[in-house]
Design goal:
Blueprint (H helix, E strand, L loop, with lengths): L2 H14 L3 E2 L8 H11 L6 H20 L6 E6 L5 H12 L4 E7 L2 H14 L8 E2 L2 H11 L3 E6 L12 H10 L6 E7 L4 H7 L6 H17 L8 E8 L4 E8 L3 E5 L4 E5 L4 E8 L3 H10 L2 E8 L5 E8 L1
Parallel strand pairs: 1-11, 2-3, 2-5, 3-4, 5-6
Antiparallel strand pairs: 6-13, 7-8, 8-11, 9-10, 12-13
Helix pairs in contact: 2-9, 3-4
The structure holds N,N,N-trimethyl-histidine (AVJ).
Length: about 325
């Protein structure tokens, strides 16, 4: 199915559901990529800095874990983005003449082109083979062409887009494409002061709100919608019991929105929420639980100084 058809069907399904929802994966068009870039630079959005600190402070040990006495490995990154944090590791590996190939995987061609161009100029010795595809398809293709040890990076708490145990099928699927010598290095944002978490998704400059509203702009642009921004309000929430950080767009009045491409209108009650995104937060027990129930074993957890975040190294159990 073509992208735009998927988008159309997902929006139709989401807005016909009770409660209504829209998939956060559609945040990321060119405008959305740029807004997320700005989010990562926000003071409130501690995740980026924590992970950078983890890499900076543990790069020797991380390298030791990845590399078995000089044997070549593929460093495969899911959803590489601009690769800024990964660059800390890449730099360190290149400096140490490590024998590895960097394989960023992303569905966005422009993101990959930008990354490759940047790395070619800043790290010319690096071997980089980007793959523009979905994660699993790319992995299967890779498995056909080489038998190198694979280290899969899934950073930045991207896993948090799955609610709790909903990550298990995804992780199992990943495990099925891995062999015993392979590793998974996965970023989890940890439970912490609920206020700190809420602020990260409720920044003072309103970039996160803008990020959510971009979804309505996209629907207007691509599906011929007539959403009025001023009729909605961004509402972030954090539940310290479940670790669920959820964002909503709340309808400020009873209204009807028409989507030309779907030849359909949708009514919103006054104060009706549209669920837009989950960013799951984890306890260390949650992480052990996820690993155990998806066929992995936790080899080691790396932390930042405040213990806000962990990058957890897994292998098949
Ligand atoms: C890219 C999914 C890790 O959930 O923290 C940031 C996206 N949303 N601010 C996250 C996001 C609002 C981010 N991830």
């Amino acid at each position: 199915m073509k992208y735009i058809e998927r988008f159309t069907e997902d929006v139709r399904e989401g807005l016909s559901s009770e409660p209504k929802y829209l998939h956060s994966k559609y945040f990321y068009d060119e405008v959305g990529d740029n807004l997320f870039q700005q989010i990562m630079e926000l003071e409130e959005y501690y995740l980026t800095e924590c992970e950078a600190q983890i890499f900076e402070n543990n790069k020797d040990e991380i390298l030791d874990c990845f590399s078995n006495d000089g044997e070549v490995f593929d460093l495969i990154e899911f959803g590489a983005g601009d690769g800024m944090k990964t660059k800390i590791l890449l730099n360190h590996f290149v400096d140490n003449n490590v024998n590895f190939n960097y394989i960023p995987i992303d569905i966005s061609k422009s993101v990959l082109d930008g990354l490759k161009e940047d790395l070619n100029s800043t790290l010319p010795q690096l071997v980089i083979n980007p793959i523009c595809d979905d994660y699993f398809h790319a992995l299967e293709e890779l498995n056909k062409i080489d038998y190198n040890k694979k280290v899969i990076l899934f950073l930045g708490s991207n896993i948090g887009n799955f609610r709790g145990d909903d990550a298990i099928p995804f992780l199992k699927h990943l495990g099925a494409d891995m062999s015993n010598k392979d590793q998974l290095f996965i970023g989890f944002d940890l439970m912490k002061d609920p206020r700190v978490i809420l602020e990260a998704y409720n920044d003072r400059k309103g970039i996160t709100s803008e990020f959510n509203f971009n979804l309505l702009d996209r629907i207007n642009k691509e599906l011929g919608g007539n959403f009025k921004r001023e009729n909605f309000s961004h509402y972030p929430s954090y539940n310290p019991i479940t670790g669920e950080t959820k964002s909503y767009l709340i309808s400020l009045e009873h209204q009807s929105v028409r989507l030309e491409k779907l030849s359909q209108s949708f009514t919103f009650e006054k104060w009706e929420p549209v669920f837009t995104e989950i960013s799951q937060k984890y306890s260390l027990r949650d992480i052990d639980h996820l690993a155990a129930h998806s066929g992995f074993k936790v080899e080691k957890n790396f932390f930042d100084q405040k213990r806000y975040f962990t990058d957890s190294l897994w292998h098949l159990s």
